[in-house]
């Protein structure tokens, strides 16, 4: 630039630089619209849209998730109308028939059959699903958590009606990574077999695949609050730790482990005998049935001699599912565990495994006792079965899953949640 004075040379250079950055901006914007065009072509059909032939579509889920009272009241009226319930139920026979053509079934039910991201592909999960009825609820749950890199073991209660077993078996046979447990048991409420069902799935999952990183157990009335990617991110941030309720056992529950129990006519009863203390003087902690644990924890459950002894000891206690996992979580040397010291106690609200709303903990925000807002659905055995009005609060929580949902009683809560999660999972792609 010998022909220009020094100041002009500088200005020319600046001009070229500005042109260059404008060009870059233009290229970037092209790339973006190119991407969203690709999104519309490749993924948009996987959204649950209002074009779908679902009767639930009359509800405005955006308004429900924003907590708009009028829409929530309307959805409540709709939920309890007999016509609506009749038209939204998917009978067991549908699943038995529709799964004869698996690829059609997966397409029409909009299953996601490819990993949505590398991060998820590199972090497979293992699920144990213990169910006994309501095939429709089960299938919506499976559809919400299904990803081809994960692995799913389904335990159907041995005493379930044949149609439930046949329909669920038919659904699982459509997926290479979903299988029925090798040994099903008869699950007794508050009895040992509830734990045995999960143990059988743990063993099968551990045997079937060596690559999964975390184990999550579910029942048929759970539903996710997060996308698979969000679950993977939350688990990675645990840095190998496990997450579950594990605290000092309240005085009122101690009788569960100091008395010998037996099953009489399908119910747990005390025999009048007193139990010996737990093996190795292990401190028994209180928790719940639902956990999020790494692969090493599951290996310990299957192989550690101390835990084998604890399992044998726990078989005649009351509701062992509500202390066994919590106790193992505090045994020194178990991968992802914490020390037994009380300072490591964790409540269900601080753990990410499960959000359950108990009736007696509900109340208004300004109350000093309340743990969560009042249930907007109804209660079953003092547990909230969520209604559409609970969603706005639920999706703000850090828990990966919530319990209970019921597709027969409040389908709109499930419908709006699944729609919200699917949309979120797909927009995470772009
Ligand atoms: C649904 O509710 C949202 C939020 O209030 C509103 O913006 C939207 O227009 C509503 N959609 C329909 C179809 O009514
Ligand atoms: C059974 O499934 C086939 C194919 O998926 C479908 O064409 C047919 O209508 C179904 N029959 C009934 C009775 O649902
Ligand atoms: C599966 O695990 C069980 C118990 O942990 C073990 O006894 C069995 O040999 C394993 N089976 C296979 C096929 O690896």
Automatic annotation (TrEMBL):
Gene Ontology molecular function: beta-1,3-galactosyl-O-glycosyl-glycoprotein beta-1,6-N-acetylglucosaminyltransferase activity
Compartments (UniProt record): Golgi apparatus membrane
Keywords: Glycoprotein, Glycosyltransferase, Membrane, Signal-anchor, Transferase, Transmembrane, Transmembrane helix
Membrane topology of this protein: Single-pass type II membrane protein
Stretches that traverse the bilayer: 12-31
Gene Ontology CC: Golgi membrane
Pathway(s) per entry: Protein modification; protein glycosylation
Family, similarity comment: Belongs to the glycosyltransferase 14 family.
Protein name, per record: Glucosaminyl (N-acetyl) transferase 3, mucin type
Organism: Oreochromis aureus
């Amino acid at each position: 630039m010998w022909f220009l004075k020094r100041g002009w040379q500088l200005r020319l250079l600046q001009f070229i630089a500005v042109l260059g950055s404008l060009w870059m901006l233009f290229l970037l914007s092209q790339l973006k619209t190119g991407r969203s065009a690709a999104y519309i072509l490749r993924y948009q059909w996987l959204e649950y849209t209002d074009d779908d032939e679902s009767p639930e579509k009359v509800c405005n889920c955006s308004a429900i998730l924003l907590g708009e009272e009028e829409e929530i009241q309307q959805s409540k009226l709709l939920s309890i109308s007999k016509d609506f319930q009749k038209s939204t139920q998917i009978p067991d026979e549908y699943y038995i028939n529709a799964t004869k053509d698996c690829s059609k079934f997966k397409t029409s039910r909009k299953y996601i059959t490819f990993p949505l991201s590398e991060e998820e592909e590199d972090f497979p999960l293992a699920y144990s699903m213990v169910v006994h009825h309501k095939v429709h609820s089960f299938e919506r749950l499976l559809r919400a958590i299904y990803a081809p890199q994960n692995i799913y073991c389904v335990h159907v209660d041995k005493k379930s009606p044949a149609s439930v077993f046949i329909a669920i078996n038919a659904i699982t046979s459509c997926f290479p990574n979903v299988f029925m447990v090798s040994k099903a048991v008869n699950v007794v409420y508050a009895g040992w077999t509830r734990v045995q069902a999960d143990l059988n799935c743990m063993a099968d999952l551990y045997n079937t695949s060596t690559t999964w990183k975390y184990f999550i157990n579910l029942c048929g009335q759970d539903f996710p609050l997060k996308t698979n990617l969000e679950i993977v991110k939350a688990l990675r941030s645990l840095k190998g730790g496990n997450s579950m309720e594990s605290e000092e056992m309240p005085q009122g529950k101690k009788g569960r482990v100091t008395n010998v129990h037996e099953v009489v006519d399908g119910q747990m009863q005390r025999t009048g005998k007193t139990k010996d203390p737990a093996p190795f003087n292990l401190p028994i902690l209180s928790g719940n049935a639902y956990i999020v644990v790494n692969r090493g924890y599951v290996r310990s459950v299957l192989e550690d001699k101390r835990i084998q002894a604890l399992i044998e000891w726990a078989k005649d206690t009351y509701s062992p599912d509500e202390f066994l996992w919590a106790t193992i979580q505090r045994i020194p040397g178990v991968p992802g565990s914490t020390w037994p010291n009380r300072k490591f106690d964790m409540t269900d609200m601080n753990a990410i495994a499960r959000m359950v709303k108990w009736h007696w903990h509900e109340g208004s925000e300004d109350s000093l006792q309340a743990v969560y807002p009042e249930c907007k659905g109804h209660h079953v055995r003092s547990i909230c079965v969520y209604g559409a009005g609970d969603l706005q609060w639920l999706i703000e929580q850090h828990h990966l899953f919530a319990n209970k949902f019921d597709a027969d009683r409040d389908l709109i809560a499930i419908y709006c949640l699944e729609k919200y999660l699917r949309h979120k999972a797909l927009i995470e792609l772009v």
